[in-house]
Write a structure and sequence with these properties.
With 543 residues, this protein is of the alpha+beta class. The chain folds into four domains: 8-95, BRCT domain (Rossmann fold, 3-Layer(aba) Sandwich), CATH 3.40.50.10190; 113-166 and 207-336, DNA polymerase beta, N-terminal domain-like (DNA polymerase, domain 1); 170-200, no CATH class; 346-543, Beta Polymerase, domain 2. It has 23 helices and twelve strands. It has helices at residues 8-19, 43-50, 65-73, 141-154, 160-164, 185-188, 193-196, 218-233, 237-252, 261-265, 272-284, 288-295, 297-306, 313-321, 327-333, 338-345, 347-351, 356-371, 383-386, 406-422, 467-475, 478-490, 524-531, and strands at 34-36, 60-62, 354-355, 378-381, 391-392, 395-401, 426-432, 440-445, 455-463, 494-496, 499-502, 517-520. The protein has a five-stranded mixed beta sheet, sandwiched between helices. A three-stranded antiparallel beta sheet has the order 10-11-12. The longest helix has 17 residues, at 406-422. It is globular. The two termini are 49 Å apart. The structure holds three DNA strands. GO terms for molecular function: DNA binding; DNA-directed DNA polymerase activity; lyase activity; metal ion binding.
Length: 543
DNA sequence: AGGCAATACTG
DNA sequence: CAGTAT
DNA sequence: GCCT
């Protein structure tokens, strides 16, 4: 539609389409198979422009997201999916309108003509042609193009503005920042902001990890969790973090059904994109990105590879780029570190969950061996075991002794490891302290018997004085820990596995400039106290 | 635009 | 040091 | 992903 080449972005799109084998024509003929309309062009305008009364059978009319998705997913995605529909498109076979179940309360723009009813309500309002996209003057075309495609992909198809009666917003399909309605954050917190600014930290609230089917948002939560799973498996830690936070607030607001954009975006941790996703889930009962992500074979392989101990996102991507598709491929052809080699060898073992009872057995074996080395050294099983989990991903064991320092305990650790290897309990080491003051040992252990799976086991050396901080750290869960640490740093303190420190001087970006002075390290509860966090037993530290 | 926890081990 | 793990 |  209206292929004016002076818009660099559109030109790039056209070129990209051609690159992928499309034939682009500027005049309508019977060779046309798809009509791609700019985002803010309405169906009737297309008819007008083409001087047709209806689009012939078999010709797809889509918005620019469609070619973008095709490239993205490496196949021709269904142009009839509602994401790709042009506003005002005749809803032939009951094309669900994304917002029909989610009436927007009080549109901002003042107009209230929602396209929730059939297209008749969508009168063509002759609009000015799309505004010029202020092109970024820098960068090569390729970069700008990639950005444009990315934008197209990430811009949610439900253009709220269209539905709110955009007065004339200068929005184009790029620039997600142009979201006109910024949060009302500041206004809501005038009097009580000082008091509850810290209540946003997850460590302030009790969680048990139990899901609440009563929550009216359970379906939304379920889908968002799946999406988070995918980002997590792709090691996209920041997106994962955002999803986790958003899901968490959704869980806590278990009295209201969040169904509109306005409702959603007013929640802390829910921004423009997640709000749109929530609306999408509520109105369509699914999430398109999720469905494609589930299918994308590249992601599947990436997930497979990054599941290997010692293989992170970077390595996994390299393996995929190298064309490997199976663990066998990698084992044979790739250059691996020793831990990675073991990681592949024991891939299925390490993926298995460990029953709580077995964790205990491993702990007992360690504990028993320890007694023959030094009576006074204690071992404690930490991690999800301490949180009461029915099964665990690995086994975390703290070695400590009243009054002992790292060096003394490190010696004990070495003896212990040797002894346990002799007993055929330990099967391999994966990451072992280099120095005498090393504090951790990662490896694998196995119960008696050939068929038993190898288990990931970690030993952690903890001086007697630091036992409280260490307990806190190694009990987790990770989210809880990060939350506690973030809170500490916002209060001018620093929390790590050794203790809680004050007077930490931080430069810009919260960069740590000095160590600070120790406040507490031996008593777990006191650390909670000093931070002003209500104490929570391990089983309530699941965020 | 840049942070989002903080630290230890590998190669 | 970058990458990985906790 | 969101927030400052």
């Amino acid at each position: 539609m209206k292929p004016c080449l002076k818009r660099a972005e559109r030109k790039m799109r056209i070129e990209k389409a051609q690159e992928y084998g499309a034939t682009v024509v500027f005049t309508f003929s019977n060779t046309v198979t798809h009509i791609i309309a700019d985002k803010d062009i309405k169906y009737n305008e297309i008819l007008e422009f083409l001087q047709l009364t209806e689009i012939p059978e078999g010709i797809a009319v889509t918005n620019p997201r469609w070619p973008g998705d095709c490239i993205r997913y490496g196949k021709l995605v269904d142009p009839k999916d509602f994401w790709y529909q042009v506003p005002g498109c005749p809803t032939e076979s009951q094309q669900r309108n994304p917002l029909q179940d989610a009436p927007i309360s009080e549109p901002i723009g003042g107009h209230s003509s929602l396209p929730s009813s059939p297209p008749s309500s969508l009168q063509v309002q002759p609009r000015p042609p799309p505004k010029q996209q202020p092109e970024t003057p820098t960068n090569s075309q390729k970069d700008a193009l990639d950005e444009a495609i990315e934008e197209c992909l990430t811009t949610t198809p439900i253009n709220i503005e269209d539905f709110l009666g955009s007065s004339s917003s200068s929005d184009t399909e790029s620039s997600p920042e142009s979201s006109p309605k910024r949060r009302k954050k500041a206004s809501s917190s005038s009097s009580n902001s000082a008091r509850d600014w810290q209540s946003h930290f997850q460590c302030m609230h009790k969680h048990t990890g139990a899901l609440n089917p009563e929550n009216p948002n359970s379906r939304t939560i379920q889908i968002l969790e799946e999406m988070m799973q995918i980002y997590d498996s792709l090691k996209d830690q920041w997106r994962t973090r955002s999803y986790r936070i958003a899901i968490s607030t959704l869980k806590s607001s278990n009295t209201t059904y969040i169904s509109t954009y306005e409702q959603a975006i007013s929640l802390p941790g829910v921004g423009d994109r997640l709000a749109k996703k929530i609306v999408e889930i509520v109105s369509t009962d699914r999430l398109q990105r999720l469905e494609y992500a589930k299918l994308d074979p590249k992601d599947q392989i990436l997930k497979l590879f990054h599941g290997i101990y010692g293989v992170g996102l970077v390595q996994a991507r390299k393996f995929v780029a190298a064309g490997y598709t199976t663990l066998e491929d990698i084992k044979k052809n790739a250059t691996l570190t020793e831990p990675q080699r073991i990681g592949i060898e024991r891939y299925s073992d390490f993926k298995q969950r460990i029953p709580r009872e077995e964790v205990k057995q491993h702990g007992d074996i360690v504990s028993t061996a320890l007694k023959t080395i030094d009576e006074k050294v204690q071992s404690h099983v930490m991690g999800s075991y301490r949180r009461g989990a029915k099964d665990c991903g690995d086994i975390d064991i703290i070695l400590t002794k009243e009054g002992a320092g790292v060096e003394e305990l490190h010696e004990v650790l070495e003896k212990l490891v040797e002894k346990l290897f002799d007993r055929k309990f330990l099967m391999c080491g994966l990451a072992i302290a280099r120095h005498d003051d090393g504090t951790k040992w990662h490896g694998a252990s196995r119960l008696e018997g050939e068929g038993k799976p190898w288990r990931r086991i970690d030993f952690l050396v903890v001086p007697g004085e630091e036992i409280g901080a260490a307990f806190l750290y190694f009990t987790g869960n990770d989210v809880f820990n990060r939350s506690m640490r973030l809170l500490a740093s916002k209060k001018g303190m620093r929390l790590n596995q050794k203790g809680l420190y004050k007077d930490v001087v931080r430069g810009k970006n919260r960069e740590k400039l000095n160590e600070g002075t120790l406040l507490e390290s031996k008593d777990e509860k006191k650390i909670f106290e000093i931070l002003g966090v209500p104490y929570r037993p391990p089983e309530h530290r699941i965020c």
